[in-house]
């Protein structure tokens, strides 16, 4: 379903050049991420007290299951610092700067008295913003226990290196800002990582997310935007420039020291404005989104206005489709980052494409006589054709419908594959990302279901 091997290699180098030209990278090596993934296997026997207490039992609730830590435990905190001091080849008197204290990829679950004693009061409107089916729906609000623990770990590490910086994530049931008025200071870095709340959002939800950033900024911690927003949308024209730039610019002027975006899924022809903003805002966070997007549209020469109308159409479509997105994904058991293609035909049915095609037809007329602009408009057309073929294939192959079968969707799949083979080097989409999503979304014959991990950077 993805690129041929040779095209995949060329694509990756083209993408690397794009990232380099957009100055993506980092000067300071930083190691962080879920820190305790293997700890139960390594230390559970000797130190069960370092691990979550759930229903009276320490450690994972089922064998090999995920687990969170007993983050209040003094021995655990000492061990985190001790391992940091021994990390890598740095001599003990010059340990590396970053102490990784990012909780595992699971809600903070410890029920012990010491952990609970560190919790702050739950914000009054908190539950209004927690999706009813999310992993954290039934979980307590535990941001303050983590904030206080990161602070304590930083104080231990500072005995060995006054510049030590502890990294934690605002995530899951410790995403919302703490409520005890704690001051963390700049030697604690918080990776701001909403585990849900993709775009588009309601006005209230957008405000609430920005309030959480503001609340963490008020702890005086250093904030890192570590969001998953760009894993959303598959190869569909899912455009969210307005809410994304609003959130990014609020954050960038308020405590942001860096960004770490989950992914570049690479749907250049259908999501160009999203990607362009994502890159340019990091270099020019003070420039208005409309100016940045004007720059993008100007690349279409005499068709700039038509292309703007085209993407404005899709942004309005996205913004107005919030409940359809929620309801459809819930009904089909689809995931916004892993199995979007289960729902593509419901969110983007056949008839949704016609007005957008007409807008691109106008762009073709306007671009006539300008070869470069014509080629670029054609690039958008190919992206839209590809999205439509994906929607058609999804309607017959979705795992959300028990009637789906390879036989039923064979013709649509064949048409999609032929299109991809013909146009793969146009780079309209990272086809390996498409294949990865489709492998969890569609009923596919064994060989086609085998897809390469796109290795998003
Ligand atoms: Zn505990």
From TrEMBL:
InterPro entries on file: DUF4838 (IPR032287)
Superkingdom classification of source: Bacteria
Species of origin: Mesorhizobium qingshengii
Protein name per the record: DUF4838 domain-containing protein
């Amino acid at each position: 379903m993805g690129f041929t091997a040779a095209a995949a290699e060329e694509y990756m180098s083209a993408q690397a050049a794009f990232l380099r030209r957009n100055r993506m990278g980092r000067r300071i090596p930083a190691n962080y991420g879920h820190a305790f993934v293997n700890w139960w296997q390594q230390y559970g026997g000797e130190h069960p007290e370092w691990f979550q207490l759930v229903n009276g039992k320490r450690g994972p609730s089922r064998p090999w299951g995920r687990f969170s830590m007993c983050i209040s435990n003094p021995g655990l905190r000492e061990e985190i610092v001790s391992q940091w001091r021994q990390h890598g080849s740095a001599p003990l008197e010059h340990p590396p700067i970053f102490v990784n204290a990012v909780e595992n990829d699971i809600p903070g679950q410890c029920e012990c008295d010491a952990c609970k004693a560190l919790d702050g009061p739950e914000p009054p409107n908190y539950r209004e913003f927690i999706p009813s089916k999310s992993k954290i729906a039934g979980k307590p609000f535990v941001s303050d226990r983590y904030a206080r623990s990161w602070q304590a770990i930083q104080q231990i590490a500072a005995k060995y290196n006054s510049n030590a910086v502890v990294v934690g994530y605002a995530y899951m049931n410790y995403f919302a800002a703490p409520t005890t008025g704690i001051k963390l200071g700049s030697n604690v870095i918080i990776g701001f990582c909403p585990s849900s709340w993709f775009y588009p959002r309601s006005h209230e939800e957008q405000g609430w997310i920005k309030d959480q950033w503001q609340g963490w900024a008020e702890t005086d911690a250093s904030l890192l935007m570590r969001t998953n927003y760009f894993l959303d949308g598959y190869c569909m024209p899912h455009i969210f420039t307005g809410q994304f730039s609003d959130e990014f610019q609020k954050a960038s002027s308020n405590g942001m020291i860096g960004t770490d975006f989950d992914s570049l899924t690479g749907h250049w022809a259908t999501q160009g404005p999203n990607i362009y903003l994502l890159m340019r805002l990091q270099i020019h966070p003070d420039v208005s989104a409309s100016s940045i997007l004007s720059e993008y549209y100007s690349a279409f020469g005499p068709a700039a206005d038509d292309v703007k109308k085209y993407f404005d159409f899709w942004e309005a479509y996205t913004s107005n489709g919030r409940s359809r997105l929620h309801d459809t994904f819930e009904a089909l058991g689809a995931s916004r980052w892993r199995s979007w293609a289960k729902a593509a035909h419901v969110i983007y049915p056949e008839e949704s494409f016609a007005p957008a095609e007409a807008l691109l037809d106008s762009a073709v007329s306007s671009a006539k006589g300008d070869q470069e602009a014509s080629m670029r408009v054609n690039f958008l057309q190919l992206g839209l054709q590809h999205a439509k073929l994906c929607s058609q294939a999804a309607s017959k192959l979705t795992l959300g419908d028990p009637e789906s079968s390879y036989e039923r969707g064979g013709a649509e799949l064949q048409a999609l594959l032929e299109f991809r083979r013909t146009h793969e080097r146009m780079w309209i989409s990272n086809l390996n990302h498409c294949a990865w999503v489709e492998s969890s979304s569609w009923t596919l014959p064994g060989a086609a279901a085998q897809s390469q991990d796109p290795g998003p950077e």
